[in-house]
Specification:
Blueprint: E1 9-12, H1 17-28, E2 32-37, H2 47-53, E3 58-61, H3 67-77, E4 82-85, H4 91-94, H5 99-105, E5 110-115, H6 130-136, H7 139-142, H8 157-180, E6 185-189, H9 190-198, E7 204-205, E8 231-232, E9 238-242, H10 248-256, H11 276-290, H12 295-304, E10 308-312, H13 322-327, E11 330-335, E12 339-344, E13 349-350, E14 396-399, H14 405-415, E15 419-424, H15 435-442, E16 446-450, H16 455-465, E17 470-473, H17 479-482, H18 487-491, E18 498-501, H19 520-524, H20 527-530, H21 546-568, E19 572-575, H22 578-584, E20 590-592, E21 597-598, E22 609-611, E23 614-618, E24 623-627, H23 631-640, H24 646-650, H25 653-658, H26 660-672, H27 676-685, E25 690-691, H28 699-702, H29 706-711, E26 714-719, E27 723-728, E28 733-734, H30 752-758, H31 763-771, E29 775-776
Parallel strand pairs: 1-2, 1-4, 2-3, 4-5, 5-6, 14-15, 14-17, 15-16, 17-18, 18-19
Antiparallel strand pairs: 6-28, 7-27, 8-9, 9-10, 11-12, 12-20, 13-19, 16-29, 20-21, 22-23, 23-24, 24-25, 26-27
Helix pairs in contact: 1-8, 8-9, 8-21, 14-21, 21-22
């Protein structure tokens, strides 16, 4: 299979959604992923999910509890570049398959471990299911739904975040292996995935700077001139606008009929708070105004006035959108049960190494007789034996993007050792006033402030591009070319350049010129309905964010291009629009050939869970969350609740799948008669995966958890503008070349003189550029 990972061999002995998504990503872009499955395994409730996550993979059966199964695994590992497992703390060591043992036998092997809370630490022995982590750490308290109390997250955002981290870690380790000659262990977890996706909203700083209001009657954006909520229109359909663009807030108020009551702001609108009357209009009267017209009229009117706005769709509706059809990111794979399954396929576009359409998910054991065909490709073998401190040491990136998404992706690469120069215009990035977002996406970078509209500024940019490995851009189509930053323009300067373009909708297509902001894309691809529960109106926010996802996927795309360049010597253009990353994180939501939804799970209307055994239950005085899989765990649950007789009716998976309503009713009755602590203790002692949902978000406490500070998952540092800060640190651990936070986000132009000096500019020339306003640097004390 072609693609940037063509020839990479991955042996996957993992279970669960995070590793399944990660290996799907690797397979989508050319890796030969060999999934190790139990002999006789028959997909049950997860069959629909398997059709998506296991596409493009091989299936080999081996019972790893037996000597024969272990021999089969070692036969696979002899030809592998990467080994992936999710066994939890201690099991790999018990089976002689830990990294230290495997390294002695396969010194070039990259070993990825995916767990719930990590392989060490106070929570390492807790059951590692996403729903349980969400409950324990207060994600269920943050997600707001249509009722009071904890909310089951309908979208598996933590699993996707963890999967992104896993792939970034593997690709970084492969990049390092090419230079060092050695494999290493990569370690990430659901806890890391949760931390990574919460970093944009949670930090501590001594000046109490935040773009969110967390208390009072105006929680959310408070009195800021920013509106990004779903609104119902006259025809019953929903839309989401975004007033973050220059002048968009006032233009939207003009269209809604409130223009005479809202001030015109000279400069960034979000820098001037709403007065009392404007606040009433924004939070109370705007929803009524949207009910005066049907959705399509509003969307067209907003587009005409250059205000970001998208319809809020149900998940399966996105397949028929004109931009999606134009981009060709949907695939149709033959299926024995449904005839055809429509899925979201590979979404990152690589010009030099385009991926092929994946093959359908295989039958269990379909490749048992093909083990002899596996071969480690020569191109992936190490080429040197250097010593590295960081996996991306020596990689240079010029980040020309604005706002959060693209910058967040290059921040992740910066944490892993890449040297990133953030290039800004003299006015600065529009996101600078939002301190938490700025720090989360820009820390560790060097700041170069330059006016690229001037000939001298463009000359500086050309000199910078000649020295870097990667350029990242997210302007709307055509803008980069106007200021000399187009791919064809830059590759003449640097033929081996990797050019990562992360626009909103794509470089071409009917929506390519539209503005793109979070959370518009989430609503557009169905997230607000996914998180709302069956038959409910869309909720205001879904945990997780397309800005984060676009940054994650952008980092993945850059790393794929980097390792492909290590193998071929060629740079290339890659494109990963925000729309595509928003689609990718709901890949599991497929459809049949007629467009009917094929959902591997669906949140119930009460927003308690996906199934009777993976959900929230009310107790006599609160709530518990359970995650029960398999016959043995169900029997333990039934016994712990005092109903061992349930195994006669629900003891097999088939019985449980066929009678969900009756099983849920029995469980709710049993839980409702006992108090929370009592039922938690009984289940926990019996080995039944269970947690008590926290009543408030736990993130503020985690920022002061010294065990996380010791591992680098939380970092404390001083920022010249924000003072002392605590924030999410490095959430991927590499054993030999660990990542590290390089410092806080830069002040505007903080490193202008330093970067220009490195590019060969003498002091007098820099002084002249600063004096003329071509460059900018902070005022000297």
């Amino acid at each position: 299979m072609p693609g940037p990972l063509d020839g990479l061999v991955v042996v996957d002995a993992s279970r669960g959604m995070p590793a399944g998504i990660a290996t799907m990503m690797l397979a989508d872009y050319g890796a030969r992923v060999v999934k190790v499955e139990r002999p006789g395994y028959t997909p049950g409730a997860e069959a629909t999910l398997r059709k998506v996550l296991d596409r493009g993979k091989w299936s080999v059966t081996a019972d790893l509890e037996t000597s024969q199964g272990t021999r089969t695994l070692h036969e696979l590992l002899a030809s592998a570049d990467v080994f992936i497992e999710s066994w939890g703390a201690g099991r790999a060591e018990a089976n002689g398959l830990d990294h230290a043992t495997l390294r002695g036998r396969y010194p070039q092997l990259v070993c990825l471990t995916v767990t719930g809370y990590g392989t060490a630490g106070p929570l390492s022995q807790r059951p590692g299911y996403e729903a349980l982590l969400n409950a324990r750490l207060g994600m269920t308290a943050e997600q707001r739904a249509h009722r009071p109390g904890p909310t089951f997250l309908g979208h598996p955002t933590v699993s996707y975040g963890t999967a992104f981290l896993a792939v970034i870690g593997v690709l970084s380790a492969l990049h390092a292996r090419k230079l060092t000659g050695r494999g290493q262990r990569v370690d990430t977890s659901l806890l890391d995935g949760m931390l990574a996706i919460r970093g944009m909203n949670w930090w501590w700083n001594e000046k109490d700077i935040s773009y969110l209001a967390r208390s009072g009657t105006q929680q959310g954006f408070g009195n800021k001139r920013l509106i990004t909520d779903p609104f119902q229109c006259a025809d019953g359909n929903w839309l989401i606008p975004h007033t973050g663009g220059p002048g968009s807030y006032k233009r939207m108020m003009d269209l809604l009929g409130f223009g005479d009551r809202v001030r015109t702001i000279d400069g960034p609108e979000m820098s001037v708070p709403l007065d009392d009357d404007e606040l009433v209009i924004a939070r109370d009267l705007v929803p009524q105004a949207f009910e005066s017209r049907p959705r399509d009229e509003w969307v067209a009117l907003f587009a005409e006035h250059d205000i970001a706005c998208l319809p809020v769709l149900r998940p399966h509706e996105i397949f028929d959108d004109e931009q999606i059809r134009h981009a060709g990111v949907t695939i149709e794979l033959p299926d024995p049960d449904h005839g055809t399954i429509r899925q979201i396929g590979p979404v990152v576009r690589f010009r030099e190494t385009p991926p092929a359409t994946p093959t359908p998910a295989p039958e269990v054991g379909a490749h048992d007789e093909r083990l002899g065909e596996l071969r480690q490709r020569a191109a992936w073998r190490p080429a040197a034996s250097r010593n590295l401190e960081r996996p991306l040491q020596g990689v240079k990136i010029a980040d020309f993007s604005s706002f959060f998404a693209t910058g967040f992706g290059s921040k992740l690469l910066c944490d892993l050792g890449a040297e990133v120069v953030k290039v800004e215009p003299p006015s600065g990035d529009q996101m600078r006033p939002l301190g938490d977002l700025w720090e989360c996406s820009q820390r560790g970078k060097r700041g170069l402030c330059i006016d690229m509209r001037t000939p001298e500024g463009q000359e500086v940019v050309r000199a910078l591009v000649a020295e870097v490995d990667v350029v990242t851009v997210n302007f709307r189509p055509g803008k980069a070319e106007k200021i000399g930053l187009g791919y064809e323009q830059l590759r003449k300067i640097n033929p081996k350049l990797i050019y990562a373009y992360l626009p909103g909708f794509g470089s071409t297509g009917p929506k390519s010129s539209l503005k793109s902001f979070a959370p518009l894309q989430s609503g557009f691809v169905g997230m607000n309905f996914i998180g709302a529960g069956a038959d409910n109106a869309p909720i205001r926010r879904v945990m997780g964010n397309e800005d984060l996802y676009n940054g994650f996927l952008g980092a993945v795309g850059v790393l794929m291009a980097l390792v492909a360049r290590q193998n071929s010597g060629a740079g290339q253009y890659l494109e990963s629009p925000q729309l595509h990353s928003s689609l990718f994180v709901r890949t599991e939501m497929a459809a049949d050939g007629n467009g009917n939804p094929l959902e591997p799970y669906r949140l119930d209307s009460d927003t308690t869970g996906w199934s009777p055994l993976y959900r929230l239950y009310r107790t006599a005085d609160g709530w518990v969350m359970i995650a029960v899989f398999g016959d043995r765990k169900f029997a333990a649950l039934a016994a712990a609740l005092g109903h061992p007789e349930w195994t006669a009716e629900f003891g097999t998976e088939r019985q449980r799948v066929d009678n969900p309503a009756e099983l849920a009713a029995r469980l709710q009755d049993a839980f409702g008669k006992r108090n929370t602590e009592d039922v938690f203790g009984a289940l926990d002692r019996a080995g039944v995966p269970v947690e008590i949902p926290a009543e408030d978000p736990v993130m503020p406490e985690l920022l002061w958890d010294e065990t996380l500070t010791e591992t680098g998952q939380v970092v404390e540092q001083h920022h010249p503008e924000y003072g002392w800060c605590r924030e999410v640190g490095v959430t991927i651990r590499l054993s030999d070349t660990p990542g590290a936070v390089r410092g806080p986000s830069p002040l505007l132009g903080q490193h202008t003189r330093e970067v220009l000096t490195e590019l060969g500019y003498p002091t007098t020339a820099i002084d002249e550029l600063v004096e003329r306003g071509v460059c900018r640097e902070p005022a000297r004390n």
